[in-house]
Amino acid sequence: MRFISVNKQSSTVTFREALLAGIAPDGGLYVPETISTVDAKLFEPTPQSTFHSIGTELLSPFVEEIPKEELKSIIAKAWDFPIPLVKLDERIYLLELFHGPTLAFKDVGARFMAQAMSYFLERRRQDLTIMVATSGDTGSAVAHGFFNVPHISVFILYPSGKISPLQEQQMTTLGGNITAVEVEGTFDNCQRLVKQALNDTDLQRDRTLTTANSINLGRLLPQITYYGWGLNQLRKNFKQDEQPLVVVPSGNFGNLTAAAYAKWMGVPIRGFVAATNANDGVLNYLHSGTFVPRASIQTYSNAMDVGNPSNLARLQSLYANDVQHLRRDIDAVSVSDEETLQEIRRTYEKANYILDPHTAVGVAAARRAQEWMTNTPPIIVAATAHPAKFLDVVKKAIDVEVPLPAALREAINRPRHSIKIRGEYSEWKRVLRESKM
Ligand SMILES: *Cc1c(COP(=O)(O)O)cnc(C)c1O
Q: Which atom of ligand 1 is nearest to the CA of 248?
C-alpha cells in the first residue's frame, strides 16, 4: 500500500517514507491510497483474540514493508498496557484508552510510532533526532514513547510557565535520550524554533532531523485498532451482537479519522458521534457543508481546544469531499463546560465512576444520541484520559479524592532536568550542536 498527500501535488510514498517525513513536500497530510477490507472473522469473539492480534491484522495491510512477525513484536513492545472495555450502564460502555505511561490515549499512537521508526532506523543503521514543540500532552506522550528507544534522540520544546506542573514533571524527569527544553515565550515560539532547525541545511549536515507531531501517520494508523478491539470485547464480554454507535471525544480529529478507517475496513460499527466542546467548527461544517476555521476557545477539556482541526482534511478525502456521505456516518455534538461538569457529577452519582473532562464530553454526547435515536444500539465511548490528570476540573464537579495512579506517583518524585533558553534561534542551535547523538 502507498500513501498520497491530500493536496495531491506530491508523489506517493511508502509507509516508511511517510513515517519519517511526517508531512508531504506539498504541505499536505498523507492518507492511504486505498482502504482494504479485512475478513469479518477477525471480529468474532474468540478467546484467542487480543488487542495485539487484532492490531496486527488491522495494521498489516498499511505497513507491507514490515513482515507480520516483526509487526507483532513492534506492537508487543509498544502496547504493554491493557485497554479494557467497561460497562457504565445498560447502553453505554467506556473503552479505557488511558492505561499507558502518561495516562492518555496518545500513548498508544506515540509508542507505536516510536517502535516503527526504530525498526526502520535499525535496519539502515541510521540515527535520527526528533524535535517536538508541545503545549502539554503531546510532549509527554512522545517523550515517554521514545524513552530508551535505540537510534533516536528527542528534544521536547515547551513554553516556560504555560503547561501544567504535572505535564512538566512528565516531560522533564526521563533523562537518557530525552532532552526537555524550556523556552521563554509561547507555544508558537517553540514551533518556530523547530521549523527553523528543520530548514537549517548547516545543521542537517551533522544529523538527520525530523519532527513527530500529531499529524504523523505513524501515530494515526495504530488507533484503528481501538475500534476492532472495542467491538471484540463488546461481543465477548457483554454478549452484545448489535453494531454499536461509537462516540469519540474530538479535537484535532485524528482519533475519529482512525475510527472511520476502521469502519471502512469492515469493523461492524453503525456510525459515529464526534463529541466536541465549544470548539464546534466540524459540527457546523456537517450541518452547513462549509468549514469555517476559527481561533480556538479555551475549555475544561483543553486537549480538544482546536479551532482548525488538521485531520478534517483526511476525513474529507476519505469521503471524497461528499458531505452528505460524511453525515450518514458521522454526527457531531457540542458540549458546554457546564454540561461537562454536570456529566462528571451525574456519572459519579449514578455509576460511582469518575470521568475526566474529555471523556465526560463523550458521555454527555452519548446521552444526547440516546435521546434522538429510536432503538439505541450499544454505545462505545472512547475514554481518552485518566481523571487524575485533570484533578482541578474534576474537583469543580465532585468532592472526591482521585487516587493517583502509580505512573503519576513515580513521576512526581523524580527530579526535573531541562535546558532553559530565551528563545533565540542561535541559542537553540547551540543546544542541538552540543548534544551528543
Ligand atoms: C488529544 C486528546 C483528545 C483529542 O483527540 P484528537 O485525535 O485530537 O481528536 C481527546 N482527549 C484527550 C484526553 C486528548 O489528549
A: 9
Statement: the pTM of the whole predicted model exceeds 0.90: yes
Per the listing, cell 450518514 goes with: 328
Write 47-52 long-range contacts (CB < 8 A, 24+).
47/236, 49/232, 49/236, 51/79, 51/82, 51/83, 51/225, 51/229, 52/76, 52/79
283 sits in which H/E element: helix 281-288
Q: Which residue's entry shows cell 516503527? A: 116
Cell 498499511 locates to 62
Pocket perturbation via mutation, ligand 1, pick of 98, 215, 250 by most ligand atoms within 8 A of CB: 250
* Torsion of Cα atoms, 17 then 22 then 27 then 32, to 10°: 60
Angle CA 227–231–235, to nearest 5: 170
Nearest atom within ligand 1 for CA of residue 254:
7
| Residues found in the chain | 437
CA angle, 51 as apex, 45 and 54 as ends, to 5°? 65
CA 112 to ligand 1 center in whole angstroms: 17
Nearest to 154 by CA among 138, 166, 165: 138
Q: Are 97 and 383 in contact (CB under 8 A)?
A: yes
| Closest C-alpha residue for ligand 1 atom 8 | 252
> Are the beta carbons of 148 and 178 closer than 8 angstroms?
no
Kindly give, in sequence order, each residue whose CB lies less than 8 Å from that of residue 352, ignoring residues fewer than 6 positions away: none
| Helix axes of 425-434 and 187-198: crossing angle, nearest 10 degrees | 60
* Whole-number pLDDT of residue 410: 81
Q: How far is CA 186 from CA 4, 251, 422, 430, in A?
A: 33, 20, 11, 20
Residue 437: the pLDDT is 61
Catalytic residue among 106, 350, 389, 395: 106
Spell out which residues line ligand 1, taking CB within 6 angstroms.
104, 106, 137, 249-256, 303-304, 358, 384-385
Q: What is the pLDDT of residues 268-292, one digit of tens each?
A: 999 999 999 999 999 999 999 999 9
What residue owns the CA closest to ligand 1's atom 15? 303
Which stretches in the chain have pLDDT values below 50? none
**Separation of CA 13 and ligand 1 centre (Å):** 27
Burial of 203 (0-12, 13-18, 19+ CB in 10 A): middle
d(CA 132, ligand 1 centre) in Å: 17
Active site residue 106: yes
Grid coordinates belonging to 432: 542541538
Question: What pLDDT is attached to residue 177?
Answer: 95
Asked whether the beta carbons of 137 and 255 are under 8 A apart, the reply is: no
**Rounded to the nearest whole angstrom, what is the distance from the C-alpha of residue 310 to the centroid of ligand 1?**
13
